[in-house]
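Practice record 12: protein with zinc ion.
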Amino acid sequence: MSSHLPLRTCSGCGGVFAKRDLLRIARSPQGELSVDLVGKKPGRGFYLCRRKQCLERALKNRNLAKKIGACLNEELLTQLRKSIENGQEVEPCRRNESMS
Ligand SMILES: [Zn+2]
């Protein structure tokens, strides 16, 4: 077990996952959002585990849109849904009990 494994929180369920297991949605300085498959794009962003319910939940979260300062467009949504369908569901390292 590595103690240096980076952990990130899913914006949908609030569970804590290994960073590599999450999808990252990054916002470019131009304000465009894109799915960051390698987790290395610059700018602000948020993370989602590969569950549809988390994607839908995150989309309904207005604070999230405010936080990243951009709106999710249809193109990105399609891309996200596709990524999630192709991806494997991952179990969180830790669930955020306060959000359930
Ligand atoms: Zn989640």
